[in-house]
Amino acid sequence: MLELTNLKGNTWAVLSPVNVGVCVKDGEVALIDTGASPDAGRRVLKLVKEKGWSVKWIVNTHCHADHIGGNHFIQKRTECGLAASPLEAACIEHTAFETNWLWSAAAPRVIRTNFMEAEPSQVTKLLSPGEELEGWGLRAVDLSGHSHGQIGLTTPDGVFFTGDAVIAPRVLAKYGIPFVADSVKMLDTFDRLETMAADLFVPSHGEVCTDVRPLVQVNRECVLNLRAELLSICEKPRTRDEIVAALAQSHNISIDLGQYVLTESAASALITPLLDEGLLAADFSGGTLRLARAETVERQPSGTDKN
Ligand SMILES: [Zn+2]
After folding, report:
1. At a CB cut-off of 8 Å and minimum separation 6, what does 35 contact?
2. What pLDDT score was predicted for residue 175?
3. For residue 70, which of 99, 47, 51, 86 has the smallest C-alpha distance?
4. What is the DSSP string of 197-263?
5. In the predicted model, what is the mean pLDDT of residues 223-241?
6. β-bridge partners, 154
7. 136 and 77 both lie in a single domain
8. Is the model's pLDDT at 303 over the cut of 50?
9. Are strands 151-154 and 138-142 parallel, antiparallel or unpaired?
10. Phi and psi of 139, rounded to 5°?
11. Best label site of 13, 86, 162, 195, fewest CB within 10 Å?
């Protein structure tokens, strides 16, 4: 059963598969994310009302559907403000952007599920990293990488809500491949997160902890292992679909259209720095894009049809 848990001082949380922060000030509440669905939003709102509090703000860490799924319901019932970073705000207001960029165009209905695309909601305040939600002492921290404009939020009680910057090892194991929008920024975020002080860290998917560094280490290893795996897969020239198939097989992902675009997108984010660093090269022999270790491609005479 869902309940409100006091983390420290005026900082509370609804701890669930998607943790929701509840920051209280004079009987009013700023929520950090709203859960995965309108029903999650309804249950969070009920818990807040039972305490006699009213929701004044929602602050979203990022635009993924499992974090903004309760936005629309809560905003409609309370007329609360909604704060998000500029990049995430665009996707919170136009949630089809998320599935659109996963599919590279307007996505088919089979991808546009509640899991991938929440109901849009209205952002009323842009909150960039380094800024505070006025009067609440909630400070936005740049945690980009998992999504392009993800922020974490620190509360005046020293509690740091870290969104999906790092996720629990059991969740990593369940999904096999974490979602990555920008793998270079993600690795930078890991480095910065290790240096940040807080009394408590609250990952959206995982347990509250006092030391985030072990969690960062597990997540960093996962990303670096995937990078090494991609280089290994591309020892032979591979199409992007062959790369997705190889990753799905080694991580036991049963592929449907939704899992395909998620895996393909994360793989692309990991491939970008490999191309930029010259470790992989793109080859169009025979008219088909194949990615391969750079030295392999350089050995192929140009114009050779591999088929
Ligand atoms: Zn996410």
Report:
1. 14, 16, 18, 20, 41, 43, 44, 66, 67, 69, 70
2. 84
3. 47
4. --SEEE-SSS--BS--HHHHHHHHHHHHHHHHHHHHHTTS-B-HHHHHHHHHHHTTPPP-HHHHHHH
5. 97
6. 139, 160
7. yes
8. no
9. antiparallel
10. -105, 130
11. 195
In angstroms, what is the span from residue 73 Cα to ligand 1's centroid?
Answer: 20
- Closest residue by Cα to residue 75 from 118, 12, 135: 118
Dist. CA 4–CA 242, nearest whole Å: 46
Q: Are residues 247 and 219 in the same domain?
A: no
Distance, CA 301 to ligand 1 centroid (Å)?
43
Question: Considering its fold, how many domains does the chain have in total?
Answer: 2
**Rounded distance from Cα 146 to ligand 1 centre (Å):** 6
Confidence bin at 304 (pLDDT 50/70/90): very low
| pTM score, whole prediction | 0.94
* Alpha-carbon separation of residue 81 from 74, 135, 201 (angstroms): 10, 13, 25
Q: How far is the CA of 204 from the centre of ligand 1 (A)?
A: 9
126-148 pLDDT, tens digit per residue, is 999 999 999 999 999 999 999 99
pLDDT for residue 23 is more than 70: yes
Displacement of CA 272 from its chain's centroid (Å):
18
- CATH number for 155: 3.60.15.10
- 241 and 122 assigned to the same domain: no
CA of 79 to the centre of ligand 1 (A): 25
Q: Which of 1-5, 44-48, 292-296 has the lowest mean pLDDT?
A: 292-296
CA-CA distance, 301 to 185, in Å (whole number)? 35
- How close is the Cα of 164 to the center of ligand 1, in Å? 5
121 and 145 part of one domain: yes
- Mean pLDDT calculated for residue range 175-183: 93
Smallest Cα–Cα separation from 127: which of 113, 116, 143, 114? Answer: 143
